[in-house]
Amino acid sequence: MRAKTLSTTPAAFAVLAASGPAWASNYDGMLALFFTFYLVLPWSALHLVVFAFLALFDRYRSHTLARWHSTIAAVGPVIGLLAALIDYRDAEFLWLAIGVNALLLALALLPMGMHAIHRRRAARRAAAAAASAPA
User: What average pLDDT does the segment 106-129 reach?
Assistant: First the structure.
């Protein structure tokens, strides 16, 4: 019984080794996947937390702060878009990566939108103050 086990064990390993190419993986697109889901998403989540705190304390009146925050937040999605264009698996994966990164890029521009809202409010207040001022 022992001799039979010893001879079948190498035979089993030989069969497994011969079928090795069937286990091969295709790692095309892994760089883009890594950038999109492990770097860009956490970067954008951090950006949204900072955005929430700054919006809560009404700090987007400054155009400079809004522009800098949008620029810094857009770095991650832009790198993710470039990685998706360089390294992609197939057309479906390319469009998924482009869509996710474009959505995160749009979220990166939220500070500029908040600044525009503050600018419109200030213009309305100034117009209302000018209209109510005695002539």
Answer: 92
